[in-house]
Amino acid sequence: MSHLTIFNQSNYKPQFQNAYEYLNNIKLEIRGLKSAIELEVNDIVCVVGISELTNILLTRIGVCCLLPRRSCGFIPNCTSRNSNVLVIDAGNRIDVYQYVEFGRQYGLDIKQVLQRVVVTRVFTLYQLVHLIIYNLPNMIHKFNAKLILIPDLFDMFIQDQIDIKEAKLLIKEIVDAILILSRKNNVLFITSLLLNKLLSISDLYYKTLLPLFNKSIEIIQNKSSERITVKINESKYVTNCVTINRKYFISKSDLLIVSNK
Mean pLDDT of all residues in the chain? Predict the structure, then answer.
């Protein structure tokens, strides 16, 4: 027997959206890149490189997320409840002044930027795991977050020098929680990994982590010059898995300065 759900149409208020509001993504345009970096809700993105450069990029993405959709941000319209950015500061890396500077360059109200970037700090590895698994779901709803930033996610694993078997279990718990939260709540997760430290420890981290991200951005400081190599890898699942690789050369100022096109 089939069932039909009947509801009172007099209480139904249709919602209208324009084309921009169907595109749950942000487009980050950086001088020197031939095309914008497109990030969508449900993406799980890893930024790999030295901490200074990866945190600049994460900060810029965080501020870009606060732009209205007509400017390639996440905010649907002026009447919607504003979405916020959640930052889990696992490595004591957040630079508030950099948020202010990018907010100024993007023409945003600085007070609004600071109010909508919600920062929580953790001081031990187990606090980090507990927060992601148990506290983060409620925080996403409380602050209407569309973007979760976790700078230097696994720095504490290296600092605490915990047993490899325990590390593997904790990593799995974190990653499983992030995968579930991303799909269930339609949020964009971006984390960063320290390239120099990552390569100096067991391949466990490298082999376990990187395949779990559908997009990765690698930022490498060239030793012979001030140029920066940016490698963007993206996996698209349509009928088969297609990996798109792009490589660009930019400068640090390209990351720091918002181009006025």
Answer: 80
